């Protein structure tokens, strides 16, 4: 059985301010109306002998992953939760241990959740070639036939053809991201491929090589999986054991050192969607070469990528710019230097700011909230609660709250009272009162929440009951 393993970690810092820690690029609709992870899962529908996917996610994004898969009618075999990020080798190892509990012969198709593949039939053919290699004990990766001297990708130098395995080649070596001159030399040589970060191998074969090459990772992850616990629809790995694993990529840990590696060259219109320049290249353009999304007005603009998430953005007489307005942050950069946005993210983190962590709209399993206004002794939020969902039963030590229902009907628990609050009515939650907000209706519930007090941080939440098992 072919078991897809969807890796949905990562923060996509080169696409800030669209992509942030709590809502990274794989959960954003960047190239279509669907998000990147949705497109990745839907791409597998036509693959033969394909099981339901294993999705590896960070704990903070678990509800996002579950909700987005549910939105396309996809039911994963499991959503596996990493308690801490340890790079791709431990993540894949954990998925391999889980897959073997269901099928000792499982083959893993390891896919990052944030890649674009334009030629799906070509990819399906490459997967068939890689499966044949995996059936002989090989650990296969997919190498992309390069179309330009890219400096943002790692490379794989191909070796000799593998006997009896059409389409598969030996791996001569892996090469880190080169400078421009070296990348051009690789392109001219015709023996180098872009390293796609996608793999196909038997779960048992991969774990055997991992145990030989990186026994510390194998031991720690095995213990973490053995100590895993069920949490609603999630499988949560034991934290101390998983955290004890060295953090290492699967390339560095295994693929660069194994003697049973193989690479399948393919031309599948692949992209890792790693920068705004890439987004500009992949999207449809107007006659002036501009890509726009949202409420955008252009005059005399050429070759620009402009995205407005909310308010109007007008651009006059600009060339080759990236302009992204998310309401709480504005990025303006030349397309050529757009990858340097990761340096802005590093600076935001160093200065202790929050714009790289979350958007003004923060998603929760019950819906979302977004900040409207704030001052020294107050904060105003807009909440949306999905039908049938509810916030936790909680209290605050440092703030009171006033809820105004602007659309829908709310069921409010306030200490020993249970109230029904209709549209255009309100309720006051005193400081220290146990309270809960629910949406008993069939339409989205919208609330304006006015907080007053001395502190408004999310850590001033004491939960007594929560249907989503949050602490």
In whole angstroms, how far apart are the ends? 37 Å
The coarse silhouette is globular
Uncertain runs with pLDDT below 50, 5 residues or more? none
Structural class comes to alpha+beta
What composes the largest sheet? Answer: 11 strands, mixed
Q: Per DSSP, what share of the residues sits in E-state strands of 2 or more residues?
A: 25-35%
| Whole-number mean pLDDT | 95
Radius of gyration: 24 Å
Helix content: 10-25%
Number of strands: 28
Count of helical segments? 11
Which key phrases capture this entry?
single chain, 471 residues, 11-stranded mixed beta sheet, globular
Question: Overview of this structure, please?
Answer:
There is one protein chain. The protein is α+β, with helices and mostly antiparallel strands and 471 residues long. The protein is built from eleven helices and 28 strands. Helix 6 (203-213) crosses helix 7. It is globular and about 75 Å long. The two termini are 37 Å apart.
